[in-house]
Amino acid sequence: MLSRFAEANRKLEKLSAKTEQEVTDIHLKLKHSEANEARLANLLNTGKETHAVTVASLEQSHQKHVRVVQELHAKSEAASHAVQVKLDKALLEQQKVQELLDKERSAFRASMTAHSDDRKFATWKGKLMKLRTELEHTKQERDTFKRQCIR
Q1: What pLDDT, on the 0 to 100 scale, is given for residue 29?
Q2: pTM strictly above 0.85
């Protein structure tokens, strides 16, 4: 019986040693797992901080972009309005000159048919030449203005 107790004692010691080894292994795995958890938590925190900085930077860039676009839009609208005002003014001026020219033409035709006096003809011819010069000048101004607007 003593041999059985000795045999059972040895088995218990082996089991105890094996259990202690497993407990030691579990403690080592636990420490390794805790170290990995701490490393991953550190990486996660670093990633969150980097993400926050990136988002803040992108928001600043977006706000700056929005401001620039708004400023450019406002400038474009103002320039477009100014060009439209100039075009309207030039068109009105052209219409006035055309009306004046039409009046002078009809008066010239009427005077030519009514009177054949050389002096009146010379006067009307001078007026016609003056109006043609004014018309050409107005056309040149219009063309210059159009070229400026196209740029």
Answers
A1: 93
A2: no
